């Protein structure tokens, strides 16, 4: 119904917040080469970092905490001052800064209809950056994902096929 290809499959969670926690755990495990099977995060040689914006739902910061990244490893990427959308150039710069400092970019959470402002992050550009650096991309479309039922709205999440995970709330 949302135009996603048959390559997508998924699970049903009780809330998009739980889906975000799940996505952050998956991001952590991919970036740490399955640290849970060895010494856990304390055995990882470099801090793992997650990127989002100040417009992201409060559940994103909580998911980052619950997945064990720590508050110090959550980067709030600069936004367009008018649309409140994540600036891809700022995301690239933040990732490059962390790489130069020896940190490991592990996850990006972009919004399709941020709850507070309905900001629409440019999924396609963000996905290109995520894939270039092998960073897990979670698309939080809890607020506006149901609009993707309308073919005329699907341009708002162009590039979603390149994401690793996606959450949306059909009841909104």
The spatial strand order of the largest sheet comes to 2-1-3-4-5
Give a count of the beta strands, DSSP E runs of length 2 or more.
5
Q: DSSP strand (E) fraction?
A: 5-15%
Regarding quaternary structure, how should these chains be classified?
A: single chain
Report Rg: 15 Å
| 3D shape | globular
Helix content bin: 25-40%
The number of helices is 4
**What is the N-to-C order of secondary-structure elements (H for helix, E for strand)?**
HEHEHEHEE
Helical/strand content category: alpha/beta
What's the mean pLDDT score?
89
Largest sheet at a glance?
A: 5 strands, parallel
Taking the alpha carbons of the first and last residues, their distance comes to: 15 Å
The low-confidence runs, each spanning 5 or more residues with pLDDT under 50, are none
How would you describe this structure to a colleague?
The chain has 172 residues and is of the alpha/beta class. It has four helices and five strands. It has helices at 16-31, 58-66, 88-100, 123-132, and strands at residues 48-52, 74-76, 104-111, 136-140, 165-167. The chain has a five-stranded parallel beta sheet with strand order 2-1-3-4-5, with helices on both faces. β3, α4 (123-132) and β4 form a beta-alpha-beta unit. α1 crosses α2 (58-66).
